[in-house]
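Thread: Modeling a multi-component assembly for a lab meeting

Hi all, long-time lurker, first post. My supervisor asked me to bring a structural picture of a complex we are working on to next week's group meeting, and I have zero experience with this. I have the sequence lines for every component (249 residues in total). Could someone generate the structure of the whole assembly? Inputs are pasted exactly as I received them:
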Amino acid sequence: MRLAGKVAIITGAASGLGRASATLFAEQGAAVVVADCNAAGAQETVTQIRDTGGRAEFIEIDVAVADDAAAMVAKAVACFGKLDVLFNNAGIAIRKPVADLDEDDWDRCIDINLKGVFLGSKYAIPEMMRGGGGSIINTASIYGVVAGRTRAAYSASKGGIVNLTRSMALDYASHNIRVNCICPGFVETPLLKKILGTKEEFQALVDMHPMGRLGRPIETAYAAVYLASDEAAFTTGIALPVDGGYTAG
Ligand SMILES: NC(=O)c1ccc[n+]([C@@H]2O[C@H](COP(=O)([O-])OP(=O)(O)OC[C@H]3O[C@@H](n4cnc5c(N)ncnc54)[C@H](O)[C@@H]3O)[C@@H](O)[C@H]2O)c1
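Re: Modeling a multi-component assembly
Sure thing. I ran the full set together rather than chain by chain. Output:
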């Protein structure tokens, strides 16, 4: 019960890394607000948590819309009385080099991946201050640290998250609000399956990870539990790779 008594919001928790984190957070004692634009998937995450005795509520939001971000924080406070943890995890992947990238695709990628982190944090921080502190965790990517071919908008958004994380860590350290991000390597999730082409392409991705496999959603979930917990009480402003060694070389 590493998160006993904590209240957490997890965005993008209808699927993939977010769902794995939501179920693990609940197992570890947190009450979880599952926030996602996919209502059916989010409801399924909530059902999974409740079926195993955990506490969870769902809210349908678009992380890129300010009113939705505010409503998500209000929901956590209305349902569970406070907010200790915000896990800004929702994201989309767009694979195009700059010359082929429509302006709309660029805007959508930056709005969801980067502005979504800004908005969620903007509304969560005052609530955390009222409660005496908190932990914000952002899902960046290895492509926040190194670049990937055909991932211009995605890499820009994730690089932005890494430095936004550091900036918020500095601004709110004195308020006992810790801000960290996780930089996963390739993890087998619905998002990855959507963007992967051939078997050869899959194997090429595997080969880029020195550990010789892709990640599993539960492996980033454990990193998030650590950063959310009091075990990480002196850890702020970090970009934690969970990447099987991808960025070590
Ligand atoms: N899967 C990987 O290999 C990998 C690697 C590095 C980083 N990441 C990052 O991990 C995070 C989760 O990705 P995943 O792999 O679990 O993908 P996923 O597609 O399985 O899950 C993403 C979730 O975000 C939600 N979402 C998308 N746009 C939204 C919006 N505007 N408002 C609210 N919710 C929205 C989706 O409905 C979905 O439930 C993303 O930020 C992604 O960039 C994934």
